[in-house]
Design goal:
By secondary structure, the chain is of the alpha+beta class. It has a single domain, classed as Gcn5-related N-acetyltransferase (GNAT) (Aminopeptidase, 3-Layer(aba) Sandwich). It is built from four helices and seven strands. It has a seven-stranded mixed beta sheet with strand order 1-2-3-4-5-7-6. The chain is globular. The protein starts with 9 loop residues before the first strand and ends with a strand.
Length: 129
C-alpha cells in the first residue's frame, strides 16, 4: 500500500486564456497540470438538464486535461489539484464542473464527489459546486 506523500511546498501557477492552464508544483518540481475552460449552458447543449432536474447551467467549468506524473500518482497530488480547480471555478462564479474520464479513474472521481451522467467508451461526469 502506498502512503500519501508529505508535501513540501505546494504552489499553483495559472495561465488564463480561453483554455486556462493550471500547473501544480511541489517546491520546483512540476507534479500536476490541468487545462480548464468555462462554458455557458453546457448541459442545455447536451440536453441533460432534464435528467439532472436543473435549469440550463451557465458558467460550467469543464475539465479537459488532468495530469499527474506516473511516479506521483496515488500520493494525494491529484486530490490537491482538483480541490484547487474547484476553488478556482467557484471564484469564477461556476455552478458545476464537468469532465470526461477513462474507466480506470472512475473510483478517483467518485471519491472526489463527481457523479456519472453518461457512459460509453468513457464516463461523462459532473459535480455541483
Amino acid at each position: 500500500m502506498k502512503y500519501l506523500k508529505k508535501f513540501n511546498d505546494i504552489r499553483f501557477e495559472i495561465e488564463e486564456s480561453d483554455s486556462t492552464k493550471i500547473r501544480m508544483y511541489d517546491v520546483d518540481e512540476k507534479v500536476g497540470y490541468s487545462s480548464v475552460t468555462i462554458k455557458d449552458n453546457i448541459f442545455d447543449k447536451w440536453n441533460l438538464h432534464d435528467d439532472l432536474e436543473v435549469d440550463p447551467i451557465k458558467n460550467t467549468k469543464s475539465l479537459y486535461i488532468l495530469g499527474i506524473s506516473m511516479r506521483n500518482r496515488r500520493t494525494g497530488y491529484g486530490s490537491n489539484l482538483i480541490n484547487y480547480i474547484e476553488e478556482y471555478a467557484n471564484k469564477k462564479g461556476c455552478e458545476y464542473i464537468t469532465l470526461s474520464s477513462i474507466t480506470d479513474a472512475l473510483g478517483f472521481w467518485k471519491k472526489m464527489g463527481y457523479d456519472v451522467y453518461s457512459m460509453g467508451d468513457y464516463y461523462s461526469m459532473y459535480k455541483k459546486l
